[in-house]
Amino acid sequence: MPGYNDYPMPPPGKTGWPWTEESCPVQGAWSNKKEWPKISIVTPSFNQAEFIEETIRSILLQGYPNLEYIIMDGGSTDGSREIIEKYAPWLSYWVSEQDEGQSNAINKGWSRSTGEIVAWLNSDDLYEPNTFKDVALYFAENPDVHMIYGDCRIINKESEKGEDAPKLKYDLKPLVCNEWFISQPAVFIRKEVLEVVGLINESLYMVMDWEFFLRIALAGFTIKYFQCPLARFRIWEDAKTTRYHVRAGREKLLVLDEIFSNQEYLPQIAPFKNEAYGFVHRWTVFANVRELNSLSVLNHSCKALRYQPKLLKDKKLIRTATKAALGRYFLCRILMKIKRR
Question: What pLDDT does 27 receive?
Fold first, then answer.
């Protein structure tokens, strides 16, 4: 099993995990009867040369004895390919060619995977040391669990740690209502789940992870919160999650329309409908504030209040809607004066 000294040396000035540190060696198996299960990781990538080597090393330096690592690069032109090639001897498969986006890349990678446990890690995120060992042991000790998510630490562009993502035990209602999110980099799934629920929805650009987790939950699979730091999620100015809030809001509403029109799911989630739409419309209000779209702010504010009248007590929402209404009013007054001249 390759160790730290077998991999390329880190770039000058890079220290700490996963540059100059590695996970504790994984030895043998947890019993005489069962070997470590194969874990398949897919990394979708496109023009992430600034971060992808850190991602790759956080996977390879796990020291996990039964790893299948697949990189699906979308034809990067920024030097990513050269970095991937540097680590190619330790990859199970990689390709750099045009694809149809992140979801398509994940699906193509998963279709090639043969592991008992699967996950995807984006090319600007990291795993914590010893993650694979901890995940494998947890699944072995909990054979009735189909998907787990652990704690996720937030990092910035320079990989400096910030606040941790919310640590919440699994519950269907807040997942459906989008009151909180499961941190995707810290998610691991039994491969058998994919055979039932299918792969990632390629029509979604922003919320494909939430929609995928919903399908797993609503299909009756067991999801558990694993109280252990498993990954680091990078938030920076050019990340999708930072740039495309309005699109995310639209997609969230489309996902709600889909699940609440599904008669198979409805018995489980019908009581949550008004709260779900209320929370998502409220979230979309603030997404549109960032885009200075006052008409959409008013529209989604009204819908949020219609679905959840208790949001009348939400001072932030009411203050935002009032500012948008006043802005529209004064804009109309100014335009009328201009028109009369």
Answer: 65
